[in-house]
Amino acid sequence: QFYLAAGPGRTVRIRISDGGSAKLTLKFGSKARERDEFEYSIPLSEAVEMLDFAIGRVIEKTRHHVRHRGYLYEIDVFGGPLAGLVIAELETPEDVPDEMLPDWLGREVTGESKFYNASLALGGIPEIAA
Questions:
Q1: CATH number of the domain where residue 29 is located
Q2: Which residues are catalytic?
Q3: pTM of the prediction?
Q4: Side-by-side strand order, sheet with 71-78
Q5: Tens digit of each residue's pLDDT (9 = 90 or more) over 91-130
Q6: Phi and psi for 45 in degrees, rounded to 5?
């Protein structure tokens, strides 16, 4: 995936999946759980052509879906310049009690914009304070 624009409270990205399909996504808002997202399928040939206009680095990642205690987690395993970074995402409007979370989760990064994909594309892997 790559970004065409990224600014405070808004991003425009293209995601190419499995080399066979592409989507244009517009995201608005700055709060992690209150961002509006609009997604549209676009021709793969146009997505490839728009790579010339990408800002930052192209994000390479493999997404896995893991179900745990009724919740569906999206696990992104990054490659390329972001290799070694793994982020688990759970989209839910409410907080999940700690006892419902899987043991394999690491530090909570919800709402930390430096872990948003647009920030990773522009800045790389952030320093993590222990």
A1: 2.40.320.10
A2: 3
A3: 0.84
A4: 61-68, 71-78, 86-89
A5: 887 888 888 899 999 988 887 889 989 999 999 888 874 4
A6: -60, -35
